[in-house]
Design a protein that fits this description.
56% of the residues lie in helices and 11% in strands. It is built from 20 helices and 12 strands. Strands 3, 4, 5, 6, 7, 10, 11 and 12 form an 8-stranded mixed sheet that branches. A hairpin with a 5-residue loop joins strand 4 and strand 5. The two termini are 47 Å apart. It binds flavin-adenine dinucleotide. The site of flavin-adenine dinucleotide has 19 residues, from strand 3, strand 5 and helix 14.
Length: 601
Amino acid sequence: MPYTAPVAEQRFVLDTVADLSGLTALPGFDNATPDLVDAVLAEAAKLAGDVFAPLNAVGDKVGATLVNDTVTLPAGFAEAYAKYVEGGWAGLGAGPGHGGQGLPFVLACAVQEQLTSANMAFSLCMMLSQGAIEALQAHAGPELQATYLTRLITGEWTGTMNLTEPQAGSDVGALRTRATAHGDGTYRLAGSKIYITWGEHDCAPNIVHLVLARLPDAPPGTKGISLFLCPKFLPDAEGNFTVRNDLRAVGLEHKLGIHASPTCTMAFGEHDQCVGYLVGPEGGGMRAMFTMMNHARINVGLQGVAIAERAYQGALAFARDRVQSAKFGAGGAAVRIIEHADVRRMLMTLKATTEAARALTYLTAAAVDRAHAGHDAPERRDFARAAAGRADLLTPVTKAWATDMGVELSSLAVQVFGGMGFVEETGAAQHLRDARIAPIYEGTNGIQALDLVGRKLAQDGGVHWQALFAEIRQDLRDLPPKGDLGLLRPYLDDALAALESATVWLTGNREGAGLTDTAAGATPYLRMFGVTVGGWLLAKQAVAAHERLASGTGDPAFLRAKIVTARFFAEQIVPPATALLGPVTRGADLLFAIPEAALAA
Ligand SMILES: Cc1cc2nc3c(=O)[nH]c(=O)nc-3n(C[C@H](O)[C@H](O)[C@H](O)COP(=O)(O)OP(=O)(O)OC[C@H]3O[C@@H](n4cnc5c(N)ncnc54)[C@H](O)[C@@H]3O)c2cc1C
């Protein structure tokens, strides 16, 4: 199935949700002119559609293979990576200090969405490198930056993130990989990491591994963790990177999806010679890793959007072509299945929810940009702090809700195909298999929900959720009482009221046994949150579409569809989420009412 990047939709969301023009008026982003943004989206669309997308099926069928420590990707991947480097895409959002283009993160997200829709497994290579760039930009010293950061920004080398060990998954603090000072400013690492994405491959000549490890006598838990940079190749006497470091991929996972993303078991220091360089201070590993993970969580949320978009495009094309049965109750000739109400329901659910999740993801990414733009200037400090709080609050919602939607929507797309969705030929099955990882990695969605109710709601005394809800309420009040836009209001008012009640209940229930009740409500609460914010953002877009229609600017068909899509989401998707107030606030009693032994009986 081909992939066509939804450039007009992306641009519309950038304008109306991320407020790109407001963003580019801030210090540091004035280079993101409207023409440049259009050119970036159009060029990336070509790379995604013409270069990445054709490799998606072969990546799935053939996958990555490991022979003698070397991982090989199917033919075409290395060449496609070279085109990505040639186009300068790796440094799009990186700071200009080390060769990056310094464009807004939200624009880099729009590009990453296209690459991910085209080929999710491949796009992980770029995503991990971006995370490494962010961590080194924020925490590495000048020498490491000059040697490694610059080559990650050009894309010459790629990056990885090494947290997970067999006994340390969600519980990162349990990791055991050791690092010892070598006396010359370098360290020696020893240990094993599992599930390392793009931990070994043949698309770039060097790989920059960022590894969490413990120094001798480090305190237990996350406080005792430091971050190290371990390159696959070290410099020789001439400064050429020819000396193989003592680290290697010793295994490759066979998995449900993303077959072209090598998921490696990595061995560090089998001969006690794995050279590592400290990034940031000793014990500062989690802080540095969080720099990387916060952006990565938004990028993983984006994977949900991207895979849903790709699944929708495939389902839509199929539904326009497949002829089956007469219309319900009408008799007569068989029609294309897109004419059946139930298929339309599926397609509208796919379209509306994908657009809502995209809007949420771009809103969160733009908040990250606002938090960074000129935050050093005293007069901008409050604005930057509020934006950072907004980004913190929305990051777990973006990661978890968008990726849950990625799974549900790619499953729904399979349903549109009928039997052809279940067999591999159409590619619909691959999207569902690929989508399934996103709710698991980068902190499971269960952990995201706990982060939301446990930390993010309480952050700064709750001002961030209060400010968000106040903004939504004001926007809903401003909707005209009549017409299409007025019809949105009752559904969204109810959703906001329910979300607010749930929030008050959760935040007032935070001591002793009440904490288990809070934890029990976390996942349905996150869903209410995602759907309510998604509905609000579609309403915002509907208002903008209405204004543009009135002023005669833009494509009328696209703009009218925006209004209908917002209404469909408000009427059909929002009410079941509003009804989650009950499940959120019911507490944990029933979850534990059946004794563990009886569960197994
Ligand atoms: C394909 C793939 C790629 C990956 N890439 C990377 C990578 O590049 N680098 C890296 O470091 N790691 C990577 N990971 C690891 C990934 O981040 C972990 O799998 C994930 O964090 C979950 O850890 P776990 O698998 O040990 O599950 P567990 O932590 O064992 O969790 C199992 C279940 O228990 C739940 N659970 C656990 N703790 C709690 C709690 N406190 N409260 C409530 N529920 C809880 C979880 O939500 C989950 O449902 C990858 C994994 C996969 C499968």
